[in-house]
Amino acid sequence: MKLTIYAALACGLAGAAFAQNDCAAGKTLTDGTLTVATGNPAFFPWVLDDAPESGKGYEAAVAYAVAAEMGFAPEQVTWVRTSFDQSIQPGAKDFDFNLQQFSITEDREKVVDFSLPYYSSAMAVLTTQSVVDAGAEPKVENLKSLLWGADANTTAVPMLTDLIDPDKQPMLYGDNVDVTAAMQAGQIDAALFDLPTALYLAAVVLENGVILGQFPPERTENPDQFGLLMEEGSALKPCVNAALTALKDSGKLAEIEAEWLQETTGVPVIE
User: Which of 63, 107, 144, 247 is least surrounded by CB atoms within 10 angstroms?
Assistant: First the structure.
């Protein structure tokens, strides 16, 4: 009886800090460790300096915040690297959850599990200075006449139809690297990316890259939402969702977004 009382007191003193850890107990790949995946490499502003273990960058910070809510200390978080395409395939995973800007879609949910959304993306128009000099403006009617490119494996094509409905069918490519290469070569005028990715591409990848404007998430009926990706049927999913709900309710998730995905980018809103 005395042992039971002491155990109850210990649980009471531990409080909420261990409540989510109880949820996750026995459900991670490695007991006592949370294995988190990101891209190889992982890019700004999602991860700074390709070092997710630093906790710097939006997705790195979200991962550690979720881990803390689940009762894992930073030293109990282990990082692995995966490709985007590899991660969305069916089958066993070498991670507990994965953050690589995975849009939650019905097709993907047939083979993997997603958490509740941790980010609703503002979509931005990436183009080049030469297209702007030729008269491109952040207005929907103006954007219709541009020649668009898109990654055929993402939600960019239906998003283009929803937001812009271009006059010409978009050129489709195997991945976003090919999209930006086509833009650099002058084969297409513009492409849609989530705002943080567009900021990175304009600053680092695309020579004379320009972000023409952005669509706020509420402009679309179904804004692109990112979820933590898990193996289908993951027993950890309820724990991850509980952690994300707590972060949203406390305002912590909004604080992380404000710190790493600031709205003070100077990118105009498309009319």
Answer: 107
Query: How many angstroms separate the Cα of 257 from the Cα of each of 131, 261, 264?
Result: 31, 5, 12
Which is it for the CA torsion 18, 24, 28, 34, positive or negative?
A: negative
Rounded CA-CA distance 24/21 in Å is: 5
Beta strand spans in the chain (E) = 34-38, 77-81, 97-98, 112-120, 123-128, 149-151, 171-173, 191-194, 209-215, 225-231
How do residues 69-105 score in pLDDT, each as one tens digit? 999 999 999 999 999 999 999 999 999 999 999 999 9
Helix, coil or strand: residue 192: strand
Is this model's pTM higher than 0.85 or not?
A: no
**How many CB atoms are located within 10 Å of the residue 48 CB?**
18
CA distance 101 to 59: 8
Task: Tell me what pLDDT residue 222 has.
Answer: 66
> DSSP character for 190?
B
pLDDT, tens digit, 9 for 90 and up, residues 222-231: 677 899 999 9
For 41, the enclosing helix (H) or strand (E) is none
Compute the C-alpha angle 192/154/124, nearest 5°: 15
